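User: Okay, second chain of the day. Same drill as before: sequence in, structure tokens out.
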Amino acid sequence: MNDENPDLAALHARSVARLGLTGALARAFSRVPRHRFIPDLVWPDLTGPPLSRSEDPVPWARCVYQDQAVTTQVNDGVPGGPGRVNRPTVSSSQPSVMAAMLQAAEVVPGAHVLEVGTGTGFNSALLSELVGAEGSVTTIEVDPGVAGQAEACLRETGHDVRVVSGDGADGYPNGAPYDALLATCAVVRVPTPWLTQVRPGGRIVLPWKPGAFLPGGMLARLVVDGSGAARGRFVGGTAFMLMRAQRPSGGMHGHDAEPDEVRVVGEDPCRIITEGSSGPQMALTVPAWRYAPLPAVDGVERIWVSATDCSAWARLRGDGRVEQGGPRRLWDEFERAHRVWVDQGRPPFTSYGLTITAGGEQRVWLESE
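Assistant: Same drill. Structure tokens below.
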């Protein structure tokens, strides 16, 4: 690879080798070069300008062929000006995460699959390779422009995929029943149409978040039963953009407020939320909160936490300082929840499971339903 002409074939081959896949999944990734689905502009840094393939082909290619998510749209297609922190709204998912989701969905030749969240179309192409000529892939995308671009890429690469422009929460009943449904956007509430459109014994693989405002999330693998319910375990932690229909609204409390209480705790309080799998698990036992990272001061990490049911708030600093105010003591609630998690042996994501009843009720359980 020289400064002007990146060797995309070599980058693609190395990226597939790094995934360490075997069998049909390895063949699918080998047959679908990621760069064929990535548009000219990508955002490797959400606080900076986009990276252009036409102007910077080598950095663009390196960005595309790292094992990471690549942001391909910000702010629903309206990039911000200088100094603005852009909000990612479309991306090409991290290839290793895509592989894990495809494995969890058990996509086999001849399967009929619904994908919610077409994005660039890269994952749709992989699904098409896996199901073969006897199967079918339907993918639904809420942004018409994004759907059109993905459809063009799929057509150019020879993948026979039905691309639908619409709200993924409704699924696509015209193609049901499906053997598997994969969502490439996170949800807080699993839409009921997904359960009714997947056949009994079929799989639903989705990123699930305990709350719309919270960091990270869990990757769930659910199996639909004959009653219209679905249940299964989380297979790991992951982070995806929320489905647009479930995006949160409302502001946060306490950004500049004087604290009612200041404490110095014995360890970094930010770790309870940001380290490993603890953040989403705290959300299972501490209700109604959201968080936002604040710029570090003198190298010290800071996190701002706000209640969504009242005016309570807390500011956590990596040097052990905790400030909180309002009618709830959020830090105290986090401490109690963390203590329970530690007492339970620090269970990982895979110790938890999720059940969705036919009526739409969601239940999270530990070890056994």
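The CA atoms of residues 13 and 30 lie 7 Å apart.

User: Thanks, on to the next one.
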